[in-house]
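My main concern about presentation is that the manuscript never shows what a single data entry looks like. The format is easy to grasp once an entry is in front of the reader. For illustration, here is how one protein appears when written out as sequence plus structure tokens:
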Amino acid sequence: MGRVPVDDVVAPVLAELASRGAPYVGVLYAGLVLTADGPRVLEFNARLGDPEAQAVLPRLTTPLAPLLAAAANGRVDQAPPVGVDPRPCVTVVLAAQGHPGAVVRGRPIEGVDAAAAREDVAVFHAGTAHDDAGGSSPAMTPGLAGALSARRPAPPSWAPGRPGPCPSRGPVG
């Protein structure tokens, strides 16, 4: 997809905001859906929240702090070039049974340490509790992959697991 989202989606939005006297400085996440006619905007998000950060930041090869500092100081033109790992990133969210409603608490996730030990996987915890046995729940595990399959019927082999029934859903998009 390359620069298409930047040139055809993000740049026109930023130009329109500036033309209305509201230039935008900060993180602008464009959630896109790939269609036969090219990318289409699903959403814009002006925060760097969980799902966006977990799928995008692992691919960033340029340190994030200088990029954010340049934006905050109005010196984007002096920011270092943005480097991006060409590998796709897959994020697996391990949510508690019943999420987002009445969740079942206290069920351990197996294999978190093994997943985190891999060079191509990062484990982020959100709403987790660590017990004396080292268990935690839930966690998000983004992993960089050599290639993405059009269909991923099961979580990647590096994803931690959970004993017992655990609802699952396929990729969104």
Notes: The domain at 4-78 is CATH 3.30.470.20 (D-amino Acid Aminotransferase; Chain A, domain 1).
